[in-house]
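User: Predict the structure for this protein chain, please.
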Amino acid sequence: MAKQSIFGRISTLIKANVNALIDSAEDPQKMLDQLVRDYTNSIADAESAIAETIGNLRLLERDHQEDVQAAAEWGNKALAASRKADELRQSGHAADADKFDNLAKIALQRQISEENEAKAIAPTIATQTEVVEKLKDGLNGMKQKLEQLKAKRSELLARAKTAEAQVKVHDAVRSIDVLDPTSELGRFEDKVRRQEALAAGKQELAASSIDAQFEALEDVGQLTEVEARLAALKTGGSSQGALGS
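Assistant: Here is the predicted structure, written as structure tokens:
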């Protein structure tokens, strides 16, 4: 029953459609990992069962060979005893001849017994040989499926890593696009332009303040001259004194 169970498991796993299992799985990588473990364990069980079956087959073959050899040996003994009986009978020793004929009969009975045992074992050997060959074929099929699973797993992991890398590159390019005026670089350039404009405005304001100060100084000079002329008028002088002097 154990051997039939192993054989049934081998047949089931070999018929399994790997692609269909992957497509229906929520997480294909975990599904593949589990399948690889299942196949590996089943292969180990199958190898153990097949080794046991082969061992039993070899024992049966050895027993069969021993039966065939024993039958041949008893046949030779029967022939030797029969010949000896014939010689004794020809020489006039009938009583001794009968003894050897009886020995020949016993040897022939043993020969028949060994032949029957060999015949009885033969169908079992044939059946077991067929089972062993099927198990070997099944085991080879499982090993091929296991390699297919491992290749699928490697392919899936490589594709997943490639897709992940592509997503990262796409996100990086989208977030740092120097050609986009709304990007960080464009905003920084606008900030620099505003700072430059502010500096220019302050410089222009500072220049206008200096001009106003000089204009104020000129106004003070004019007022001072007016006061001087007024003082001259009050003392009886001329308002042109400052010019005449």
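The chain is about 90% helix and 0% strand.
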